[in-house]
Design brief:
alpha/beta, seven-stranded mixed beta sheet, globular
């Protein structure tokens, strides 16, 4: 099955492995962009980098159930498979290289033992990366990184890519996956690419589709608050108290009651330990999560972002 003359669509693990073996026999490098679909320009920037770096590129589209808790938005998560396929077929058609393959597995392919959202009912093998999964996002979504680490390990076992690509927007996820690949001795290079943003600064995300046009525009306050914190730090040109930086961020973020702050945190850029002071040279990672009302009036959309201090 193809969506364009040169792009293969795989539904089974065996199909991907046969294709990957042929790449190996031909001495071709493989870049891999794992996604949950609802593709946007942020995803396309990762694909574009893979096309530049590798002989062949494969993209996966799989809404991973194990990273959703029973009360979270698995059922309502945007699923736009036809649009996604069209984007991958047409976005890069005038490029020197195109996407070679798209992997769209069924849940039964990825979880042969089945998968329950209730973690107490789950059976089978799962992967946990200790030390960088429990804080920040891990506080409010305790099973999230276990699900991410598990599905990424599975996908890496299937695709065996030369390079795998992620966006800096999901900063903690990037650190989890880097440690996963290092500690499990997986022969893949993890490439982290800059966050792509909408014109108002809002980090591109599939969940932005939940927002009304007005809320989406007002969400510029998220990145503005992070920039304010960074500018305050850089203006001091010395060791700066994390408490003072947080005060600057909250002065912006809390000015719009549409957005409810879940957390703002300043952490070591590698260990994710909370730090009391930010030192030039070591720097820090500032991360936050806010929730905003969905445009349908049912529930709230959760938005995350981050900025790096040097």
């Amino acid at each position: 099955m193809t969506i364009a003359e040169s792009i293969k669509v795989f539904r089974t693990i065996q199909q991907v492995r046969q294709w990957r073996l042929q790449c190996l026999l031909n001495g071709k490098s493989v870049g891999f962009v794992p996604t949950m679909g609802a593709l946007h320009d942020g995803h396309c920037s990762l694909v574009n980098q893979s096309l530049k770096d590798n002989d062949n590129t494969v993209v996966s589209i799989f809404v991973n159930p194990s990273q959703f808790a029973p009360h979270e938005d698995l059922d309502s998560y945007p699923r736009t498979i036809d649009s996604d396929l069209n984007i991958l077929a047409n976005k890069f058609k005038n490029y020197t290289k195109q996407v070679d393959a798209i992997f769209i597995p069924k849940i039964s392919e990825m979880y042969p033992s089945g998968i329950e959202l209730d973690i107490s009912k789950q059976r089978g093998a799962f992967v946990t990366v200790k030390g960088c999964s429990e804080q920040l996002e891990g506080v409010t979504r305790p099973q999230f990184f276990r699900g991410v680490a598990t599905v990424v390990t599975k996908l890496l076992n299937v695709v065996k890519p030369t390079n795998i690509y992620f966006g800096q927007k999901d900063a903690q996820q990037c650190i989890v996956i880097k440690n996963l690949v290092k500690d499990l001795l997986i022969d893949t290079n993890v490439k982290i690419m800059p966050t792509l943003r909408e014109t108002n600064g809002l980090a591109m995300s599939s969940r932005n589709e939940y927002l009304s046009p007005q809320t989406r525009q007002e969400a510029s306050i998220i990145y503005k608050s992070l920039q304010t914190g960074k500018q305050y730090y850089e203006s001091k040109n010395s060791v700066v108290s994390s408490k003072d930086i947080l005060h600057e961020i909250h002065s912006i973020l809390d000015s719009n009651p549409t957005f409810k702050t879940e957390y703002v945190s300043i952490n070591h850029p590698e260990t994710l330990d909370e730090i009391e002071n930010v030192e030039p040279g070591t720097g820090a990672l500032i991360t936050l999560a806010v929730v905003a009302p969905k445009q349908d009036g049912v529930g709230r959309a959760r938005l995350i972002d981050n900025i790096i201090l040097h």
